[in-house]
Amino acid sequence: MDFAPTQYTLQSLVTGEQFTDTGWLLDAPNQTKPGLVRAVYIHKQMNPKDISYGIYRFADWLPINRILQGSSAPVTFKSSGLASFLGLKNLFITFSGYWPEKGAFMTTCSFKETEAYSVCGRMDATQPEVLVVASAGNTARAFAKVCSDNNIPLLLCVPEDNLDALWFENPLNDCVKLIASKSGSDYFDAIHLSNLACQCNGFIAEGGAKNVARRDGMGTTMLSATTHIGQIPDYYFQAVGSGTGAIAAWEANLRLIADGRFGNKLMKLMVSQNSPFVPIMNAWNANSRDMLPFDDETARKEVEIIDAKVLSNRKPPYPPIGGLFDALTETKGEVLAVTNEEARAAAALFLQHEGNDIHPAAAVAVASLIQAVNNAKIEPDALVMLNITGGGENRFKQGKELHYLLPSAIFGLNPSLDEVRLALDKIFGQ
Prior knowledge:
By secondary structure, this protein is of the alpha/beta class. The chain has helices spanning about 80-85, 110-120, 140-150, 185-200, 210-220, 220-230, 245-260, 280-285, 295-305, 325-330, 340-355, 360-375, 395, 415-425; strands at about 10, 20, 35-40, 75-80, 90-95, 100, 105, 130-135, 155-160, 165-170, 175-180, 205, 235-240, 270-275, 335-340, 385-390, 405, 410. Helix 3 (about 140-150) links the parallel strand 8 (about 130-135) and strand 9 (about 155-160).
């Protein structure tokens, strides 16, 4: 495929200063106030490539140096079944997962592939460090597949209780390694473990929401919807753990306004969490830029309760300049809470009316849409984008013998740096 590295600069959202991306910048140079950096692309108008490029069909607005093999882009279609059931005239579903009839071929069945192909495409092929990724499950599966297929050294950090999410169609390349925080831990503990790993020589943090490639990869869901519909949606529904996908949609919305061909409206972000784990909703309802106090024991108990474990981020990128608080503020957004029972019912409705299984997090999004309709929060003729962030897993697994990635080491809740360093030396043969 013909491809030249995307031309862009980085911009501090704190100062507005633009600067050159010298490689793997996650923060603006000499900046002390917490704030994200944003990619500013030379192409003010985004022109999608052929679908054979996969996610890289949106390369004009991806901060990448190379194209990797095996990607698939999110797919958008106008709903008939669910829309009719809800009485919505213009419901568009953006689907990331496995649904061959719709042209969706993400074999990890999650929109986390959009992140992984973009982040790894940003990496220089000669970068010597091992990439470190913390995950509650889906992100790890996506990065494992992409790095395995493209021979990119990777260290995953995942809670032991979430290891059943690390299933694969084929055995993984030995370049992918896994360590875990012990049973009873949560995503925050996996993040802590990854932070220790990144203090060891030869390892580099993927960066999470700070990484422009992660956000702009996730923003391809918005690009898929808007280019398919022909205009920016009125409402955007998605379940959130970190809220990075919602930040990404907002940023893509701003670029689409500047593009000039899709309207000038800011769509209203309608994000949802799986009750009782609702730290983002609690902070937003308190009109607080800072996250509210949330003790470890309570958080872990609430994570045990929720079905959508991937939504269990205790320290999301909510407070920083350019983070979720600003995205919700600028779009006059809302944060909704959905119970396990509501999400399970929503998943059944989606299967019945649209014909595919969806992940628990995506079911939370569907349930929040049902809530919004029942509470008259959206107009029947509004242009609605429903971001289904994972699905098709049941049908993809059918008849397949799956392979699971096993941890090379399992750590307690508060491991020391020396403990992690010794383990990594052994795992990577240093």
